Amino acid sequence: MKKVLLASVMAGLGFGMAGVTTASAAETYEQYQTAIDARQGSGVSGTAIFVPQDDGTMEVRLTAENADGLKASIHRGLCRYSNDSEGAPEMLAFSPEPLAQLDDIEDGKSTCSINMTADGMMTEPHSVAIYDGDAVVACGNIQ
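RESULT FIELD:
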């Protein structure tokens, strides 16, 4: 009897697994959060929250300390290569040209919509960088 019951359970599990599908990133998560860490002792840090929208855009809600008047943008690549991408694997190299420019940070916040889908953001390395002039003073990898 135990063997028949075990075989029935195993068969049921097999049928259950046949119906499993993989969902896209947009269907899986309601939002993504990225910590933005200070670089070179800048004292600038924060958080970026990315919320996929039904129209295929992404709402970005950035909060940052010590960052009023600074600029933020989304880049291809990882923060560790933001100062120098020489020798970095091509897929991980930080691109100095932003994919999306965020609104200037005012009262510690920046909220805007960018033309990027959740799938596009998550299929290759991206980062959010905060700038003081040309210098990256805080950065966070989007994962």
